[in-house]
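Objective 1b: paired records.
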Amino acid sequence: MNVLRRLPLLFVLLSAAGSSYAADVHIGVVAPQDGNFATLGAEIIAGANFEIQAQKDTATVVDEPCTEDGGRAAAEAMIAAKVQVAIGFLCTETLEGALPRLKDAGIPAITVSVRSRILMEDAVKNGWPLFRLAPVDTAEAAMAIDTILKNWAADPLALIDDGTIHGRELVGAIRTALEEKGLKPVFTDTYRPGQDQQIALVRRLKKAGATRVFIGGDRSDVAVIARDAKSENIPLAIMGGDAMRAADQPVPLQEGVQAIALPDYTSLPEAQPTVQAMRAGGIEPDGYILPSAAAVQIANQAAESAKAENKAITDKLIGTAFQTAIGPITFGQSHELTENAYRLLEWRSNAFVPVTTPSN
């Protein structure tokens, strides 16, 4: 964490040194520096700072208090600093306050975090220049639906959730879409989370004839269910959602359990040069560090291309294939990612790895 604590000073030095190497792109970095989100803000600043130095760009760092007033103040600060692209943005409230002024100033914003569908609908309606590396909040369910239809459509399927808002809405969206396609689950239920054992539940799954189950719940509950199914000799293929990306405790996850989740960016082939360079510099690329570096790469490539073609940066952000530390990125006319970032992963040898072929 020493590297992260030095980041504000690093940015002062970076901006001050900009004229010595005639950097072309001035990037605004918006991230919390105090409060509950300070650690996540430090990740954003770390990733952005690393790539800004690598690209020989300059930066203005703006604190993000996660309020609409704070968003308006952040926008005014970036306009005064004459930034060309703004990246970061952990909070919806910041964007709601900042985007109208950023639109007037022609400064596009790239968020690494905010997933609100309503915010993006407002942005498109109002012409706000918002782009996001975070997947839309319906993308997890969309990938689960597609995967189940491809891999499990011929098998007796169960859908269960833990009763939380996310778990219930995720499973509800999956169930509705599957039933519209004529695929009706043989078993649906809401289980009680946080239990030491789920033997009764797995026996009910067996009685219903289910051989496949999608679970809208956290990793610890999925691990208990998988363990108890194995102990009862009940063959059950299990898939969960993005909540599976959590600590493997207290019950270890069984081999072969699957998850619809965002990949570990540090494992991607495209990420390796950046990952190795960061680690050589004493930065472990956790959390938002790689996505923030990717946002800077996108900002740099879009700004350079816009300058060469005498176009607005916002125009170049749409439809351009950017090469980044988290893989190729393209924003569509909706300003959303053109490809679903979620993937089908499988737990193998203490890590989630991509599933490249349909599973039996």
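Objective 1b, second protein:
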Amino acid sequence: METYQAVFKRKEVKYLLTEAQLTALRPALETHMEPDAFAHSSISNLYYDTPDFRMLRRSQEKPVYREKLRLRSYGVPDEETQVFPEIKKKAEGIVYKRRVSMPYGDAIRYLSRRRPCEDGQIFQELNWMLISYGSLAPRIFLSYERDSWKGREEPSLRLTLDRDILWRTEALDLQRGAWGEPLLEPNQVLMEVKISNAAPLWLAEALSENEIFPISFSKCGRAFETLCKKYINEMEMKRYA
């Protein structure tokens, strides 16, 4: 089995930029960075939550501590494809990710509590989340095309570029493939800089020169906001029908 990183602890700073801004930024990136071992990947996620979206509603309130549970695959899985049940936590600006790898069919059964609990520290944390929330199930699908870069001189520096971000709340099965509503405008790119400490000076200067500024942005949070707006609009239409 291929090795994978099970535990992450880092800052993740996000930027929403246009293709033109990315083109202007690219010379600096190519000077100091290079594609990593997974230069391009098609990523699909199922976000789990309660029927009333307790985790997502809490996350939208921007508390000091927030958490999410998702199932991630690279490409469209079959029953035996290795996928990643993952807990994502954020506390005081630091992102913590803890994940395990298992076949897709087993992961679905495990997360729906139709498969016995597994051993190990990360599985214990997953088990606690499944038990404490009680009624977790897939609620939102999210997919995107990702380009990944790493620092030439700074191995801990990572940068990702996400395009074609799609979301849906139906057909919540990773085997159904990537389709849904777009989350961004056609010429927008979501960039994430993943760092252990401060960003290097060259990157800070390049971002400033191209007027690229950090934003607060959650892909799943934005999808949830859109879902809420749709619900409100539907209620308003029924009210005045």
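The CA atoms of residues 15 and 214 lie 5 Å apart. The helical segments are 19-32, 54-60, 104-111, 121-133, 201-209, 219-240.
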